[in-house]
Structures are given as C-alpha cells and as structure tokens.
Amino acid sequence: MATQRLNVTVPDDVSEILKTKKNKSEFLAAAVREKAINDKKKEIVEKARELRKYYESDEDLTSLNSLDSQDFVD
Question: Which of 40, 51, 52, 67 has a Cα at 20 to 30 A from 22?
C-alpha cells in the first residue's frame, strides 16, 4: 500500500495517547478510517430521517420503514 508522510499537530492529550502506541501510524490510520465510516453512517441516517416524512405519507414507499432499527445503522 502506498503511504505518505504527514506532519500534523495534535493536542497534548492525544500526544500522550500516541506515546503509548507501538505503531502510531497504524493506530492513526485505523482511527481516521473508523471516524470516516462513523461520519458517513451518521450522514446516511440524517438523510434518511429527512426523507422519513415522504415514506410515512406514501404507503407505496417502503424502503425506510425501519429507521429506528439497529439493522439500519449496522
């Protein structure tokens, strides 16, 4: 996998956490990926909630009937 060297500034508390990690690059890459996935899931749920009124008002639309189910966000 191609890599890039970055120079970043982090708060002291994050620096202290990183000092405890053997492979800081691997830890940061995993954390960034996880955050990006969680942000995308949140965005999808928010968009679905915006569309909810249309699905509630038209019984022919059924794709988003279970917005509150755990399966929807997993």
Answer: 40
